[in-house]
Automatic annotation (TrEMBL):
Subcellular location: Cell membrane
Phylogenetic classification of the source organism: Bacteria, Pseudomonadati, Pseudomonadota, Gammaproteobacteria, Pseudomonadales
Transmembrane intervals: 38-62, 82-102, 166-187, 193-213, 278-302
Membrane topology: Multi-pass membrane protein
Residues annotated as domain ABC transporter: 372-577
GO MF, any single term: ATP binding
UniProt name for this protein: ABC transporter ATP-binding protein/permease
Organism, scientific name: Zestomonas insulae
InterPro entries: AAA+_ATPase (IPR003593), ABC1_TM_dom (IPR011527), ABC1_TM_sf (IPR036640), ABC_transporter-like_ATP-bd (IPR003439), ABC_transporter-like_CS (IPR017871), ABC_transporter_sub-D (IPR050835), P-loop_NTPase (IPR027417)
Pfam families hit by this protein: ABC_membrane_2, ABC_tran
Length: 577
């Protein structure tokens, strides 16, 4: 288990590898099984972008001829140029529509592929559980949904924008160099002086915008985290609405939610301040860029060296060159948000990689066998405290074992270790493959009751007669008519009904080894006894390993273990009734 300081040091080291790690993340899709279609779409989009640049070059030439026709009052040329512009405009509209459409198609295909890969990695090796236990990766739902969407959209748009601006820069630089002529400054003749003016203007602007807005990356990162924390708090209130209402906890929840919103609010104010300064600069920079080329080129126009059409062409070419050179300025806010998104995704992927490495080299060695066996097994907490001293134990197939102990002694942790969820410890354990674990609060997915009863298998796995009989056996016959009704069953059913439904699920699955972690705690003793009797009758020969506190459970277990002072102690046997 890494400490917070170790994680911080690791993150600092990873920052130095940012671009190489982003490159690896980006190229995953372009080398995947979908690379053929991906590259085809990308090349088509790039081609359309280049056509768009060519159209801009054509419009630039059109400016010169159109304004010269106006200056010369040449009506036939004017009419011809208007019709020519309509043709250019029609092509430009078509190119713009399909460039956007195909870009969106490529974006959603890329996002779907990345989402599939990240879903698989998140769910593999119980990573979704271990990330929550380690607590070093906040809001994985945001990273899987919003960040993957932002990453694909921003990466594609920024990359295509950069390509389009580079091509535009080269094209219009040639035009600007050719039409701007030369100027003499302090006795030195400067050829293509408008090009050098555009270059100087863009370089100064890029340097200044970086100074003004460099805090945006960190602020955007924190804003996304605070927004996700607020959403998580709101979801928590929805999930536990009844408990909060019964406890009259509205004031407390109001305070908690406003505390989370305060982080959103205060960080957003900082964002506003930086963006205000950036907008002041960007707006001023753009407005000056409108008249700057006219002022610089005006002396040649008034001296008669160029016509009005030439002046307008110079103005258009300068604007395109300056815009291309100023791409960094215009895209700075988007680049800052993209960098923040990449940081979150990379740290999430690093956490997944750590989880996979931990799964491949677990501290507790595991295998499968006919019996449950512990060999020198120790368990501890994340902070290093011990829960179980070295313990060796064997439970034979068909045995019924009751595990008891004081609250907090580590009984549930032992079951987590048996299931492979608990990573802190050492030693070796052997667990039979056909095992099923029932927690105190069962999980019921949103959907039909039949699907919830068959979980984690498909709803069609069991015959209708088997499903209905399992419900009757567990005194849930009133739910039979609702088997194909979709609902949020964790909100509909009582805790006792949920536990009985979990027992019905076990009857259908018929495992050879069944582990119950206080799986009947919400039931009264009569119902609990009836269900245990049912399990013994319907699952003959199955091993039952139960955690419970009630003495009435002893009659259903031939062997009893008690966890006391970090040791498993054999209790006197009680023959089952």
């Amino acid at each position: 288990m890494k400490s917070n300081a170790e994680y911080s040091a690791a993150n600092d080291a990873l920052q130095g590898q940012f671009f190489s790690r982003v490159w690896r993340l980006t190229t995953l899709y372009w080398r995947s099984e979908e690379k053929g279609m991906a590259w085809l779409l990308l090349l088509v989009v790039i081609a359309l972008s280049l056509v768009g640049v060519a159209i801009s070059v054509a419009v630039n030439s059109w400016y010169r001829e159109f304004y010269n026709a106006l200056q010369n009052k040449d009506l036939p040329a004017f009419t011809h140029l208007i019709l020519y512009f309509c043709g250019i405009a029609a092509v430009a509209i078509l190119v713009a529509v399909y460039r956007l459409y195909l870009t969106q198609m490529l974006t959603i295909r890329w996002r779907r592929w990345l989402t599939e890969q990240h879903f698989a990695a998140w769910l593999a090796h119980k990573n979704y559980y271990r990330l929550e236990q380690r607590g070093h990766t906040d809001n994985p739902d945001q990273r899987l949904a919003e960040d993957l969407n932002s990453f694909t959209d921003s990466t594609l748009n920024l990359s295509l924008g950069l390509i389009r601006n580079v091509v535009s820069l080269v094209s219009f630089s040639v035009i600007l160099w050719g039409v701007s002529g030369s100027i003499e400054v302090f006795g030195i003749e400067i050829p293509g002086y408008m090009f050098w003016a555009a270059l100087l203007y863009a370089m100064v602007g890029s340097w200044l915008v970086h100074l003004v807005a460099r805090r945006l990356i960190g602020l955007n990162n924190r804003q996304q985290r605070y927004e996700a924390d607020l959403r998580f708090g709101l979801v928590r209130v929805r999930e536990h609405a009844e408990s909060i209402a019964l406890s009259n906890g509205e004031a407390n929840e109001q305070q908690r939610l406003m505390g989370r919103f305060h982080n959103v609010w205060s960080n957003f104010w900082e964002l506003m301040k930086v963006q205000k300064r950036l907008t002041f600069f960007s707006a001023g920079y753009s407005q000056i860029a409108i008249i700057f080329p006219l002022v610089v080129a005006a002396p040649r126009y008034f001296s008669g060296k160029i016509q009005l059409g030439d002046l307008m062409q110079i103005n258009s070419a300068f604007g395109n060159v300056q815009e291309s050179m100023s791409w960094f300025i215009d895209a700075y806010a988007s680049l800052a948000a993209w960098r923040a998104t990449c940081d979150r995704l990379l740290s999430f992927r690093q956490a997944l990689a750590d989880g996979e490495a931990q799964a491949e080299h677990p501290a507790i060695q595991r295998d499968s066998g006919e019996a449950l066996r512990l060999d020198a097994l120790t368990l501890g907490l994340a902070d290093g405290r011990s829960l179980l001293e070295p313990t060796s134990l064997r439970i034979a197939p068909g045995e019924h074992v009751l595990l008891s102990g004081a609250s907090g002694s580590g009984k549930s942790t032992l079951l987590r270790a048996l299931s492979g969820l608990w990573p802190f410890g050492s030693g070796h354990l052997s667990l039979p493959e056909d095992s099923l674990f029932l927690p105190q609060k069962p999980y019921l997915p949103i959907g039909t009751l039949r699907a919830a009863l068959s979980y984690p298998h498909d709803a069609e796995r069991y015959r209708a007669a088997e499903v209905e009989q399992a419900l009757r056996d567990c005194r849930l016959e009133h739910l039979i008519e609702r088997l194909d009704e979709a609902d949020h069953w964790e909100r509909v059913l009582s805790p006792g009904e949920m536990q009985r439904l979990a027992i019905a699920r076990a009857l259908l699955a018929a495992p050879r080894w069944l582990f119950l972690d206080e799986a009947t705690s919400a039931l009264d003793e009569a119902d609990e006894n009836a269900l245990y009797q049912l399990l013994q009758e319907r699952l003959p020969g199955a091993s039952l390993i139960s955690i419970g506190h009630r003495s009435s459970l002893k009659r259903f277990h031939s062997r009893q273990l008690r966890l006391e002072q970090r040791h498993l102690v054999e209790a006197p046997a009680t023959l089952p009734a």
